[in-house]
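Run folding on both entries below.
>entry_1
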Amino acid sequence: MAITTEDCNSVRTIIHDRYEARNAMDPASGDLLEAALRAFESDDSVSVAVLWGAGGAFCAGWDLKFAAELSGQPDPLSSYDYPAEGTTGDVPRGPMGPTRLQLSKPVIAAIEGPAVAGGMEIALWCDLRVMAEDAYMGVYCRRWGVPLLDGGTVRLPRLIGQGRALDLILTGRKVTAQECLAIGLCERVVESGGARAAAESLAEDIARFPQACARADRASVYAQYGLDLEQAMRNEFEGGKTPLSQEGLAGATRFSSGRGRHGDFETI
């Protein structure tokens, strides 16, 4: 199978293993990856997921050999169309798989080698990105006239700003891990071959915390786009009420008893 999973404590690592194509996404892999992430979302035994591409490549984008087979079709992307505005119906997956999912739990991209074109869009869909020092991103599909279809033109400017996003989108140039870190396109750079271990360690750190609170704060970050300040803060407050009663008051009691003092994260 192109997609497999491995669990360790509360972290699930989802592995894309189609290295003969540098983990480019074909339809079968896209179906399996979305299914794996839906399964992660519904599994209460795991709190954080890590996406990793086997064999030294995160994802080289949409499988252009498959895309070439669509040539001549009147509407080659019809299976990915959103329902018409004003109608109801399930939203189909994106061409790259999970890029239209809205999960309640965080996902971390562990990037070795290329995360380019649609592979970059998958990385952008993730909450955090850990890159090996020799990994890279780029809108490489610019060369072939293939547009960004999985949120790249939406998430990239939100993450790094419009000017920088347009630089990357319009030039299609290679973006090294060091530049990604400098412009906010990734959050960690580690030694070559170490992205998976570093991402899993980060995931373990996040999974240690009370999860209702962490998920409420994460949800507020995503929900605030498009809201004015007052509405965003109202939304934050309403979303935090239940986690405070479920977890926060108990946490305050632990603190008052002497645990986790002075920034100590080990005895929480």
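>entry_2
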Amino acid sequence: MKDPGTVLFFRKDNYMELEEALKGLLDGIRNPLSKEEILLSEAGGRILADAVVAPFSVPSFPKSAMDGYAVCSEDVKAASGDDPVRLKVIGESLAGVPLRMEKPEDKTGNKTGNKTGNEIGSAADMRGTAVRIMTGAKIPEGYDSVIRQEDTDYGEETVTIYRGVEAYTNYCRVGEDIREGDVVLPAGTRIGRIESGMLASLGFRKVQVLRPLRVTILSTGSELKEPGTPLGEGEIYNSISYTLSCSLKNAGFSAVSGICADDLDEIIQAVEKAVEESDMVITTGGVSVGKKDLLPEVLERIGAETVFSGINIQPGTPTKGSRKNGVPILCLSGNPFAALVNFDLYFWEIAAKLTGCASFLPVRETAVLCSEYPKRNKRRRFIRAKASDGKVTLPAKSHASSVLGNLLDCNCYIDLPEETEVRPGDTVRIIHMPE
């Protein structure tokens, strides 16, 4: 078989290759999304509009990783159960509580009274002493390690230490997590739970994000009905708009959907309205050459610029791409699987371009085929499949473009070049479906 890492670019029977068609749509995208400031508590799933620079280091002070005693490592490095070290406890440091402690005796044996932790001095001043400390509390100046309380006698005025440590043991340094001035999150980052936590640790109550991408989905066909309404003869429920809308909303985008009967004026009016109100328009159905396939005429009547019409792939050969006033219009098949796979192939690349967020880009890799697929296809074929641990199987018995239910056991598409035979053990290209 052909090298699975190679994609050939050519036209067959005047049908454009997928990559060429996609590039045509991407090259025409010019309208950046505007910004808005929102509360961090509401920013999950949104896209950062600007890079985030750390205004301070995290942690901003040296802190303890353990409950125990802050010490000078030179005092205790030789401590053991047989030869313990005893130190005077001169204070206590608790998380979030201002540190005050007794200053050790000076060289003449005189004391200078209680001081804050910042006034204590050098490591030489602190030799022979310890400070009781809790996890997350500030380590006073002059100490360079923390002894776990389990390795002590839990002393209050003096503490006996039964195990030595090296310098900076159980010691969280300033900037260990984030350093002041670092770009911690670039523009285009999608805010997830880790990103949200980082922003909170830097004190951001509000963040600048891109407004949600607005997508309108228009399903065409007089046979389509909304779920919950009675079905007449020959009518079916409109499933694909719910499939696509759910995918869009899970990504944090705005999705508006509607059904248009097979009426030219009705579809023209709906598409023109969608172009005015959306960043992208997706239609399903009516895209081929049948009596009721009205989208080609609709696009011509509204003055849309044709980017491509017909693609050298299956399913989804009749897919059309256009532009009107800079807004991409993607016209998909009305068959559920054909619409879904082509939505995934085009939309996520466009979403990444519009938002600057690379996490929307499809994940492509190779895997070893573990199932039979004896069919040789005349066009490049996208096959529903399941990938795990570098292997890919075909749990679906039917590969018809009208079948949606067997996708429940699938998580990827096999990208099979045209006129290619594959057998178990062959390496194939796969594209992961969005989660």
